[in-house]
C-alpha cells in the first residue's frame, strides 16, 4: 500500500485512534481512583472537621494543601455520612444557582467572579467580611455573605442575592472547605502569599 | 430538491436566528464588565453568559446537522431514510430550545433539589439546559445517526467520507450522555465534563466539520474525491491522535495525577498539526484552481475556516496550553480569547460557507458573488479579531497581575480586573463586538437578498 493511497491513511487513522483510546481508558481508570473522595489527591468529605492550609512544598516544587488538626465546621464534628450529605447538598446549591457561570472552580467556569478553588483560605474573609458582618468565625461570615451578598458589597461587580437559605449557605461553605483540601498540582500558585 | 435538503434549509434558518441570539447575549455579557450594576437582580451576568454559550452550541450544531442533511442525499443519490422523523424532530428541537431559553430568561434558577436539575438549570457550563432538554438533544442525535446510517444501508453504498461520518456518530451520541450525571465530587464531575466538552467539541465536532468541509471542497473548488478523502483520513489521524490525549491539558489542575502535566502538555502541543495541514490543503486548492470558483463567498469562508482553525484553535491554544503558562493563564480572559477564536475558526466559518453554497443551489444561479458578502466577511472577521485581541490583553493582565504577582485571591482578582490593561481590553472587546454584530446584520442581509441581486447566468471569471 503506497503513501499516496487513501487506504494507507485510513489504516493510520483507525490504528492511531484505537491506540489513543486504549491509553486514555487505562489512564482514566487510574485517574478516577486518584480523584475519588478518599483517593490520593482528594480527601474524604469528613476532612471538613480538620484544619486545611496551603503551603509551598520544596520536594514537589509546588503549592500543596496541608491537612492539620481538628477544626470543626460550625462547631460540629460531622460523621463521614453526615459530611457526605452536607457536601452533596453544597454541590446541588452550586449547580442550581449556576455559580460556575460567574465563578471558576479549579479554574473552570466563567470569569466574571473570582476563582473559588481555595476561597476557603482567602484572607478577605477575616480581613473584610468578618468585620463587616460582625461574625466571630470565618464560616459564619461566609454564610452571612452568601445569604445576603448585596448587603456587603466590596466592589462594583457585586454578587446577586440568589435567595440561599441558611442550610444551603452552610452546605456551600462546607463544599468550599472540602474543595480547598484537594491537591490541584499547585493551582492556584502563591495563593494568598502576596498582595498586588 | 430532496426533502432532506428542504429540512437542511430549515436547520440553516434556525442556525442563523440562534447565531443572532448568541451575538446579542455576547454583547450584553461584555457590557456587564463595563457597567456592572446593569440589570442587577433582574437579569444578572450568569444568565446572559448561559444564553450566549448555549446558543453558540445550538446554532453550530444546527448548522452542522443541516449541512449533513444537505449533502447526504447528493452523496448517495437518494432521499434520506426516515426523513419524516427528522422533520418532526426539527420542530421539537426548536420548540425545546425556545422553552429552555424562556426558562433561563424568566425563571433563571431554582432551589437546591433535583427538580431544578430536571426542569430549570443544571448549572454545568455549556450543559446548563435542564435534563429533559438534554434527553431531547440525545433523541435528535440518535435520529440523526439513524438517518445517516439507515440511508447508507438502504443504498448499499459507502464512501470514505460516509465511513468517517458513521463512525463519528457513535461518540457523538455516546459522549453527550455525559450531560446528565450530577457528581458530588467536583474533580470527578469535571473529569467527565471535559470528556463532553473536549471530546464532543474538539473531537467529534472536528471530525464532523471535516466531513462537511470535504463535501464543500468537492462542491465549491471541484477538488477530487480521492484528494479530499485522503486529507480527511490524515486529519482524523492527527486530530484524534493528538486530541484524545490532548484532553490532558484540561486535567492539569482538577485534582488529577501529576502525569497529566506531561501528557497533556505534549499532546496539546501536537494539536495544531492537523490544523496546519488544513491550511496547507486550502492553499494547495486555492493555487490549483487559481481562486476560480462559482461561489466566491463560500470559497472565502472555507479559506477563513482553515486559517481561523489553525490560528484560533491551534496557535492560540498552544500559546496557553503548556502547564508552566497555563498555571497562570487558566481561567482568565486569555481562555476566553482562545475560546472565541477557536469556535469561530473551527466551526462558525465552515457553517457560514455551507449557508452560501445552499443559497446558491436553491436559487439556481451559476455564479454567486457581489459586494455585500465582502462587507459581511470583513466586518465579522475584523470584529472577531478585535475581540480576540482585546480579550487577550485583558487576560494577560489578569495572568500577570492577578495570578503570578497577586496570588489569585479575591483582592488580587479585583485589583487585576481594575488594571488599565484589563479595562481597555474589555472596552476593545465590546467595541469590536459591535463591529461583529454589524457584520452579522450584513451577513443576514446578504443571505436573504444576494440571489435576488445576482443575474441567473453569469460566467465565473477566468483565472489570470
Give a description of the structure.
The complex is a heterodimer of chains A (196) and B (464). Chain A has helices at residues 6-35, 80-96, 124-133, 138-147, 166-180; strands at residues 50-57, 62-70, 104-105, 108-109. Chain A has 196 residues and is α+β, with helices and mostly antiparallel strands. Chain A folds into two domains: 1-35; 47-180, Cytochrome Bc1 Complex, Chain D, domain 2 (Orthogonal Bundle), CATH 1.10.760. Chain A has a two-stranded antiparallel sheet. Chain A has a two-stranded antiparallel ribbon with strand order 3-4. In chain A, a hairpin with a 4-residue loop joins strand 1 (50-57) and strand 2 (62-70). The longest helix of chain A is centred in the first third of the chain and has 30 residues, at 6-35. The mean pLDDT of chain A is 93. Chain B has 464 residues and is mostly helical. Chain B has a domain at 1-157. Chain B is 78% helix and 0% strand. Chain B contains 16 helices and no strands. In chain B, helix 14 (372-405) packs across helix 15 (410-417). The longest helix of chain B has 36 residues, at 186-221. Chain B is globular, with a radius of gyration of 22 Å. The model of chain B has no long low-confidence stretch (mean pLDDT 91). The interface between A and B is large, with 87 and 92 residues.
Which terms summarize this structure?
heterodimer, A: 196 residues, alpha+beta, Cytochrome Bc1 Complex, Chain D, domain 2, 2 domains, two-stranded antiparallel ribbon, two-stranded antiparallel sheet, 5 helices, 4 strands, 11% strand, B: 464 residues, mainly alpha, 16 helices, globular
Kindly summarize this structure in a few lines.
With about 200 residues, chain A is of the alpha+beta class. Chain A has helices at about 5-35, 80-95, 125-135, 140-145, 165-180, and strands at about 50-55, 60-70, 105, 110.
Topology summary:
The complex is a heterodimer of chains A (196) and B (464).
Chain A lengths: L5 H30 L14 E8 L4 E9 L9 H17 L7 E2 L2 E2 L14 H10 L4 H10 L18 H15 L16
Antiparallel strand pairs in A: 1-2, 3-4
Helix pairs in contact in A: 2-5, 3-4, 4-5
Chain B lengths: L2 H32 L10 H32 L6 H24 L7 H6 L11 H25 L4 H15 L11 H36 L3 H22 L12 H12 L1 H17 L7 H26 L1 H7 L3 H31 L8 H34 L4 H8 L2 H34 L11
Helix pairs in contact in B: 1-2, 1-3, 1-16, 2-3, 2-5, 2-7, 2-13, 3-5, 5-6, 6-7, 7-8, 7-13, 8-9, 8-10, 10-11, 11-13, 13-14, 14-15, 14-16
Amino acid at each position: 500500500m503506497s503513501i499516496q493511497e487513501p487506504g494507507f491513511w485510513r489504516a493510520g487513522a483507525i490504528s492511531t485512534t484505537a491506540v489513543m483510546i486504549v491509553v486514555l481508558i487505562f489512564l482514566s481508570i487510574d485517574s478516577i481512583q486518584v480523584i475519588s473522595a478518599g483517593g490520593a489527591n482528594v480527601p474524604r468529605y469528613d476532612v471538613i472537621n480538620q484544619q486545611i492550609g496551603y503551603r509551598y512544598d520544596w520536594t514537589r516544587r509546588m503549592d500543596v494543601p496541608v491537612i492539620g488538626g481538628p477544626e470543626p465546621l460550625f462547631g460540629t464534628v460531622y460523621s463521614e455520612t453526615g459530611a457526605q450529605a452536607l457536601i452533596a447538598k453544597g454541590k446541588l446549591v452550586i449547580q442550581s444557582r449556576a455559580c460556575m457561570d460567574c465563578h471558576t472552580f479549579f479554574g473552570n467556569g466563567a470569569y466574571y467572579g473570582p476563582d473559588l478553588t481555595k476561597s476557603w483560605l482567602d484572607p478577605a474573609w477575616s480581613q473584610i467580611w468578618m468585620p463587616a458582618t460582625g461574625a466571630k468565625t470565618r464560616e459564619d461570615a461566609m454564610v452571612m455573605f452568601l445569604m445576603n451578598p448585596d448587603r456587603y458589597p466590596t466592589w462594583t461587580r457585586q454578587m446577586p442575592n440568589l435567595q440561599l437559605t441558611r442550610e444551603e449557605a452552610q452546605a456551600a461553605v462546607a463544599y468550599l472547605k472540602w474543595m480547598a483540601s484537594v491537591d490541584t498540582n499547585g493551582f492556584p500558585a502563591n495563593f494568598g502569599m502576596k498582595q498586588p | 430538491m430532496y426533502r432532506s435538503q428542504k429540512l437542511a434549509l430549515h436547520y440553516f434558518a434556525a442556525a442563523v436566528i440562534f447565531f443572532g441570539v448568541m451575538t446579542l447575549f455576547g454583547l450584553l455579557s461584555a457590557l456587564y464588565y463595563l457597567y456592572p450594576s446593569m440589570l442587577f437582580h433582574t437579569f444578572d451576568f450568569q444568565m446572559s453568559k448561559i444564553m450566549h454559550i448555549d446558543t453558540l452550541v445550538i446554532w453550530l450544531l444546527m448548522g452542522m446537522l443541516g449541512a449533513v442533511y444537505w449533502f447526504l442525499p447528493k452523496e448517495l443519490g437518494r432521499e434520506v431514510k426516515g426523513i419524516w422523523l427528522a422533520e418532526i424532530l426539527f420542530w421539537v428541537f426548536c420548540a425545546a430550545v425556545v422553552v429552555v431559553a424562556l426558562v433561563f430568561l424568566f425563571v433563571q434558577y431554582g432551589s437546591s433539589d433535583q427538580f431544578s436539575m430536571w426542569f430549570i438549570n443544571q448549572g454545568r457550563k455549556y450543559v446548563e439546559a435542564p435534563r429533559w432538554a438534554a434527553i431531547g438533544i440525545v433523541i435528535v442525535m440518535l435520529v440523526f445517526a439513524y438517518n445517516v446510517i439507515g440511508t447508507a444501508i438502504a443504498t448499499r453504498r459507502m464512501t470514505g467520507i460516509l465511513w468517517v461520518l458513521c463512525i463519528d456518530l457513535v461518540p457523538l451520541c455516546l459522549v453527550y450522555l455525559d450531560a446528565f450525571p450530577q457528581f458530588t465530587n467536583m474533580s470527578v464531575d469535571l473529569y467527565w465534563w471535559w470528556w463532553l466538552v473536549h471530546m464532543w467539541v474538539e473531537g467529534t465536532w472536528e471530525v464532523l466539520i471535516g466531513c462537511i468541509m470535504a463535501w464543500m471542497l468537492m462542491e465549491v473548488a471541484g477538488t477530487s474525491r480521492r484528494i479530499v478523502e485522503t486529507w480527511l483520513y490524515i486529519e482524523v489521524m492527527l486530530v484524534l491522535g493528538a486530541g484524545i490525549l490532548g484532553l490532558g491539558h484540561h486535567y492539569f489542575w482538577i485534582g488529577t495525577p501529576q502525569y497529566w502535566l506531561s501528557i497533556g502538555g505534549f499532546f496539546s502541543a501536537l494539536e495544531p498539526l492537523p490544523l496546519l495541514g488544513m491550511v496547507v490543503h486550502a492553499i494547495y486548492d486555492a493555487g490549483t484552481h487559481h481562486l476560480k470558483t462559482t461561489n466566491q463567498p463560500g470559497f472565502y469562508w472555507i479559506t477563513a475556516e482553515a486559517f481561523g482553525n489553525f490560528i484560533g484553535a491551534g496557535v492560540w491554544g498552544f500559546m496557553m496550553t503548556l502547564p508552566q503558562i497555563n498555571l497562570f493563564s487558566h481561567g482568565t480572559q486569555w481562555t476566553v480569547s482562545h475560546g472565541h477564536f477557536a469556535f469561530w475558526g473551527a466551526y462558525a466559518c465552515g457553517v457560514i460557507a455551507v449557508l452560501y453554497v445552499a443559497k446558491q443551489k436553491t436559487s439556481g444561479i451559476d455564479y454567486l458573488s457581489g459586494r455585500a458578502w465582502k462587507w459581511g466577511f470583513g466586518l465579522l472577521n475584523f470584529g472577531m479579531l478585535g475581540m480576540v485581541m482585546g480579550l487577550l490583553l485583558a487576560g494577560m493582565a489578569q495572568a500577570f497581575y492577578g495570578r503570578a504577582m497577586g496570588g489569585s485571591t479575591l483582592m488580587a482578582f479585583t485589583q487585576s480586573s481594575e488594571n488599565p490593561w484589563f479595562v481597555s481590553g474589555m472596552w476593545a472587546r465590546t467595541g469590536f463586538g459591535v463591529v461583529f454584530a454589524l457584520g452579522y446584520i450584513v451577513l443576514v442581509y446578504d443571505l436573504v437578498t444576494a440571489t435576488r441581486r445576482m443575474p441567473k447566468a453569469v460566467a465565473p471569471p477566468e483565472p489570470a
